[in-house]
Amino acid sequence: MLALSTFVKLVRSSNSVCNDVHNHFQSELTVSQFGILEALYHLGPLAQKDLAAKILKSPGNITTIINNLEKNNLVQRRISTKDKRYFMIHLTKKGRSTIERIFPIHADVVLRRISVLTEAEQHTLGNLLKKLATPVRSGGI
């Protein structure tokens, strides 16, 4: 029962924080679109498969998201100069200005939500979540 109760608290907390954090840009971008723009902004151009891994989406799903971003002139696909088999995804000027406008608001909302925890609590929670993210290897499910 303790594990189930803990799981419910984790999911409710995650949903509450995510809803607040993502609420400010949802009229303009989906959460996945924001994730792609944010990754490209901080990491530079990336291959589609690398973007999929960064935002935890399937390669098929990432294609649709990038197609929609490309239709809105926020990203551009370019053949990789290192390996012609891959497209690299680049921010356009419009994409850069969009993420530069939205990201500070996003960061502020994250800061306000997480600051209810002390620094020590944030470190503890980070370590616990990292531990929880490690797959359990068993003969179970």
Describe the fold and architecture.
The protein is built from six helices and three strands; from the N terminus they run ααβααββαα. The protein is mainly alpha-helical and 141 residues long. It has one domain (25-129): Winged helix-like DNA-binding domain superfamily/Winged helix DNA-binding domain (Arc Repressor Mutant, subunit A, Orthogonal Bundle). It has a three-stranded antiparallel β-sheet with strand order 1-3-2. The protein starts with a helix and ends in an 8-residue tail after the last helix. The model has no long low-confidence stretch (mean pLDDT 90).
Mean pLDDT: 90
Span of the ends, CA to CA: 18 Å
Supply the number of helical segments.
Answer: 6
Largest sheet composition: 3 strands, antiparallel
Element string (H = helix, E = strand): HHEHHEEHH
Within the largest sheet, what's the order of strands?
Answer: 1-3-2
CATH superfamily: Winged helix-like DNA-binding domain superfamily/Winged helix DNA-binding domain
Overall CATH architecture:
Orthogonal Bundle
Envelope shape: globular
- Percent of residues in helices comes to 55-70%
In terms of topology, how is this protein built?
Layout (H helix, E strand, L loop, with lengths): L1 H22 L7 H13 L2 E2 H7 L4 H13 L3 E5 L7 E5 L1 H22 L4 H15 L8
Antiparallel strand pairs: 1-3, 2-3
Summary tags:
141 residues, Arc Repressor Mutant, subunit A, three-stranded antiparallel beta sheet
Structure described in brief:
With 141 residues, the chain is mostly helical. It contains six helices and three strands, in the order H-H-E-H-H-E-E-H-H.
